[in-house]
């Protein structure tokens, strides 16, 4: 029985490691192996340096109290008092909004591409999604600033306020810039990631499950609903979390449409701020060590959240490819 | 393939060193306040001295101070004079005033004119006055139809000398502002959207109906945005203008290190929110070529350069100040030796 | 149990819903592409590509130095990032099984989760501060670091996919192991690696955040890696958030140029992929 090899990020198994002669059989080999080791070590060095630098630079602000930093609501450079909460809030709100919008669309897209769509249209749609993935963040920001924001301000936000204005989510002045704009732009930006991972996940569902349902007389949708989706659910959840992780780190498009205001408001129409956006805006000009430390602290928070989410996503996606029902297909 | 790459690299290197031999790039960063003027200055100066390229990046006064302190740029620019702590971190730093500018309160609303007093201005930026047709505003603007819409405040999201001038003024005229917010290049704003640079705030005001923001006069004029009339210390409502800005500087005693605040100045026609803007350079220049070029440029800036100021609505330096700056420039050194000024005018 | 007609109807409705989701995805894309082309194309005069930016408020000028700058930054990124990324991938594939290899793989995973702005901060601390200047080198390093994780992972996968038989045949012929890895294995995987490299380069060309405090910006032509340089992305950002209509128009045109560049790189990647698959292994 072949031993389970490492699993790559998208869930497919890596091929077996190649057979090797004992190292050192040749001086050329020794050099080669040393060179490879250098490359491997370089990766360790780079990441190590980055993490250590962040920890070191953020020391002044952590010394005053890590919880005070994480839960503080005030960002006040005048008195050197910094709280990360508004940025954590903004990042979480916009990313959550992004995934709430992007997940159904991505699942629909993935279903279209793998099951429900007419076969002739699939390559076209697939190509379009690839284009979406290739567009740089600043171009999304440009479009967001000059197209999405005015549209939200003139049409969407007033409409939402008229119909759902009783909810705190849709109250306050409708200026177009703010959490809603940032969340929607992020949704478009993470669509390619979430839909392609979902697509991969759907592909790893064994055909026998589908065929079994179809053989029992299910319609296409019923086969998907009964046989495919439950099996793929952890993977789809993983795709969503992966998308969330990507949305967290987006800087340019967000800073151009979110309003750059370190405030916590319940309304989606309000202006806010995100972790990467404040770092981008303020890093070049911090004069006190505490201010620099605060930004480094924000970077650590951001890094920490992405790390946790990415790991969680990988585990979930692997769960599907190594899934509990795999044995049933052999 | 390898041969082509090597040849290309050699050519590029040759090209680079050849080019490096004839032009000198001097990099500066900082204030967005004077950027329209500096942009013209550096372009004009480059036409006169093609071998000298001044690369100025307007990243905000806070950035200017930080980068010159870290010596990652050759000169900085700031409308906020450096504090004592900041100067302690950059020993030998000198402030060279270049021009005067006015911080105007611009808005995006149908009224042709708007009168603001210290009370209404601070009320708006404190978030206490939230609608355009608030009674406090109506009282000062009798006869003007104020719309029943929300006021959206726009401020700076980056470290800004313009913010410093504006909050310095508000701290002087509003005890509540002084207590709640204070003054600085970056403050905790009670309300509002943040824009990057004077450019960003102007952009926000221009595109957001109901917005109000503070920007340098040139930005409002270039973008055809209305400017409010402010009530000055003598109780007179003044429109921002060249003359009103110069008037603000007229009564103020300029200290030897040029760090001064001219907000809320006395004088019947003085505009209340005005300020000097500075180029930040080290008294002793470490690089010979760059140092010479920089000192000569500064000399040009306070003499010939001043003629470009008025068309862009910046007020030229008062004559007594020019005399003081001349002395400072003459006392600057390059690698320990006195700077060679191309001509004494 | 619902009737067959109802179940069939539900099936149709869901299919339509999926189609609607496709539209929801396509409409922003279409809007964006349409606007970039329609607003950007009129500005694409020859002088736009070759001229330097004009001072504030003066019309005319172009993004010639920004195009050059992006080229230089991407070139530097390739010089640093390609060897590091591909080398790390080969390391993981060939020697990645021991504890050291596992540590590297785990670290590479962490690496891929670092947001681009954080990489920019790292490059500022490591290059800009010691060198006492903003530079294309710092920007290039930041971009290189962004390329490494995905390149390493893809290279590892591709190298592992090379059939063991090829390796064994080469070794059986007496070719030393290092030559086998370099000339036989890597050459076989080269097509896929080229594709991955092109995609990584396309991504690097589109980055803005890490450049903000590494390469800064420059209004002039710059050929030196140790000086600040303009770039397409930073220029687009600066123009977009400005209040000047002329600059807004230039932002659209510059965005069009950027999209064409990124598009060309992606197409090249696809072409490389197709060629390697067609020419490919036996």
Describe the structure.
The complex is a heterotrimer of chains A (330), B (345) and C (282). Chain A is built from 13 helices and two strands, in the order αααββαααααααααα. By secondary structure, chain A is an all-alpha fold. Chain A has one domain: MetI-like fold. In chain A, helix 1 (27-57) packs across helix 12 (289-321). Chain A starts with 26 loop residues before the first helix and ends with a helix. The relative contact order of chain A is 0.15. Residues 1-9 and 326-330 of chain A have low confidence and may be disordered. Chain B is of the alpha/beta class and 345 residues long. Chain B has helices spanning 2-22, 35-48, 61-69, 84-89, 118-126, 135-140, 161-173, 175-180, 197-207, 217-222, 242-250, 288-302, 319-330, and strands spanning 24-30, 52-58, 75-78, 93-107, 115-116, 152-156, 193-195, 211-216, 229-231, 237-238, 274-282, 284-285, 333-334, 337-338. The termini of chain B are far apart. In chain B, 40% of the residues lie in helices and 20% in strands. Chain B contains 13 helices and 14 strands. In chain B, strand 13 (333-334) and strand 14 form a beta hairpin. In chain C, 75% of the residues lie in helices and 0% in strands. Chain C starts with a helix and ends with a helix.
């Amino acid at each position: 029985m072949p031993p389970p090899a490492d699993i790559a990020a998208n869930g497919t198994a890596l091929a077996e490691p190649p057979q090797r002669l004992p190292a050192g059989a040749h001086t050329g080999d020794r050099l080669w192996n040393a060179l490879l080791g250098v490359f491997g070590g370089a990766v360790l060095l780079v990441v190590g340096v980055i993490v250590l630098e962040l920890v070191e630079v953020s020391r002044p602000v952590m010394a005053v109290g890590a919880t005070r930093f994480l839960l503080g609501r005030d960002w006040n450079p005048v008195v050197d008092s910094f709280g990360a909460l508004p940025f954590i809030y903004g990042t979480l709100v916009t990313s959550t909004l992004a995934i709430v919008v992007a997940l159904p669309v991505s699942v629909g897209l993935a279903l279209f591409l793998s099951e429900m769509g007419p076969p002739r249209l699939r390559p076209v749609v697939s190509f379009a999604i690839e284009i979406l993935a290739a567009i740089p963040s600043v171009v999304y920001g440009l479009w967001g600033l000059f197209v999405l924001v005015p549209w939200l301000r003139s049409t969407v936000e007033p409409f939402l306020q008229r119909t759902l204005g009783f909810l705190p989510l849709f109250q306050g002045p409708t200026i177009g810039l703010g959490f809603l704009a940032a969340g929607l732009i992020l949704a478009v930006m993470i669509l390619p990631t979430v839909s392609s991972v979902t697509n991969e996940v759907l592909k790893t569902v064994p055909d026998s499950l589908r065929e079994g349902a179809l053989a029992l007389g299910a319609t296409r949708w019923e086969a998907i609903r009964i046989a495919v989706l439950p099996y793929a659910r952890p993977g789809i959840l993983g795709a969503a979390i992966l998308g969330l992780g990507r949305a967290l780190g987006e800087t340019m498009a967000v800073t151009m449409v979110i309003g750059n205001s370190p405030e916590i408001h319940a309304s989606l129409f309000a202006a806010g701020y995100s972790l990467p956006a404040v770092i981008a805006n303020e890093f070049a000009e911090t004069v006190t060590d505490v201010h620099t430390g605060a930004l480094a602290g924000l970077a650590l928070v951001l890094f920490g959240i992405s790390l946790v989410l990415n790991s969680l996503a990988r585990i979930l996606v692997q769960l599907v490819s190594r899934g509990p029902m795999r044995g049933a297909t052999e | 393939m390898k041969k082509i790459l090597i040849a290309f690299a050699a050519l590029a290197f040759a090209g680079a060193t050849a080019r490096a031999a004839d032009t000198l790039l001097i990099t500066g960063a900082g204030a967005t306040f004077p950027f329209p003027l500096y942009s013209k200055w550096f372009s004009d100066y480059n036409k006169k001295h093609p071998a000298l390229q001044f690369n100025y990046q307007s990243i905000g006064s806070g950035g200017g101070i930080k980068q010159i302190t870290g010596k990652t740029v050759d000169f900085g620019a700031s409308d906020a004079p450096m504090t004592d702590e900041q100067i302690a971190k950059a020993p030998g730093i000198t402030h060279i005033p270049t021009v005067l500018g006015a911080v105007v309160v611009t808005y995006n609303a149908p009224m042709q004119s708007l009168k603001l007093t210290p009370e209404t201005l601070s009320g708006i930026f404190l978030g206490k006055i939230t609608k355009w047709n608030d009674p406090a505003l109506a009282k000062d603007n009798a006869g003007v139809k104020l719309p029943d819409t929300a006021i959206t405040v726009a401020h700076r999201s980056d470290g800004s000398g313009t913010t410093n001038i504006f909050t310095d003024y508000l701290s002087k005229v509003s005890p509540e502002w002084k207590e709640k917010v204070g003054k600085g290049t970056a403050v905790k704003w009670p309300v509002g959207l943040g824009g990057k640079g004077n450019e960003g705030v102007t952009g926000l005001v221009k595109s957001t109906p109901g917005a109000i923001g503070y920007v340098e006069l040139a930005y409002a004029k270039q973008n055809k945005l209305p400017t409010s009339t402010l009530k000055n210390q003598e109780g007179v409502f003044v429109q921002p203008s060249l003359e009103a800005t110069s008037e603000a500087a007229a009564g103020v005693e300029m200290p030897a290190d040029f760090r001064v605040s001219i907000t809320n100045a006395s004088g019947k026609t003085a505009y209340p929110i005005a300020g000097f803007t500075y180029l930040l350079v080290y008294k002793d220049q470490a690089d010979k070529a760059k140092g010479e070029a920089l000192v000569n440029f500064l000399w040009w800036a306070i003499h010939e350069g001043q003629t470009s100021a008025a068309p862009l609505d910046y007020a030229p330096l008062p004559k007594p100040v020019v005399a003081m700056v001349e002395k400072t420039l003459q006392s600057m050194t390059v690698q320990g030796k006195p700077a060679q000024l191309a001509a004494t005018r | 149990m619902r009737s067959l007609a109802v179940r069939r109807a539900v099936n149709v409705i869901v299919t339509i819903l999926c189609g609607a989701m496709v539209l929801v995805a396509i409409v922003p894309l279409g809007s964006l592409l349409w606007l970039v082309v329609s607003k950007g194309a009129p500005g694409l005069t020859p002088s736009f590509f070759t001229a330097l930016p004009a001072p504030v408020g003066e019309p005319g000028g172009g993004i010639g130095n920004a195009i050059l700058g992006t080229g230089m930054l991407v070139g530097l990124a390739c010089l640093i990032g390609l060897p590091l990324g591909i080398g790390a991938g080969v390391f993981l594939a060939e020697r990645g099984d021991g504890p050291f290899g596992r540590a590297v793989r785990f670290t590479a995973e962490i690496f891929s989760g670092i947001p681009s702005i954080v990489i920019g901060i790292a490059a500022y601390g490591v290059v800009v501060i010691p060198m006492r200047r903003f530079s294309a080198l710092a920007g290039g390093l930041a971009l290189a670091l962004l390329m490494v994780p995905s390149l390493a992972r893809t290279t590892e996968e591709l190298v592992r996919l090379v059939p063991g038989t090829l390796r064994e045949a080469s070794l059986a012929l007496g070719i030393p192991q290092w030559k086998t890895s370099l000339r036989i294995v890597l050459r076989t995987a080269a097509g896929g690696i080229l594709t991955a490299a092109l995609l990584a380069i396309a991504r690097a060309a589109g980055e803005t955040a890490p450049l903000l405090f590494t390469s800064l910006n420059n209004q002039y032509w710059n050929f030196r890696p140790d000086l600040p340089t303009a770039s397409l992305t930073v220029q687009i950002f600066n123009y977009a958030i400005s209040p000047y209509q002329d600059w807004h128009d230039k932002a659209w045109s510059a965005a069009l140029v950027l999209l064409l560049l990124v598009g060309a790189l992606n197409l090249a990647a696809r072409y490389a992929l197709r060629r390697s698959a067609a020419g490919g292994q036996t």
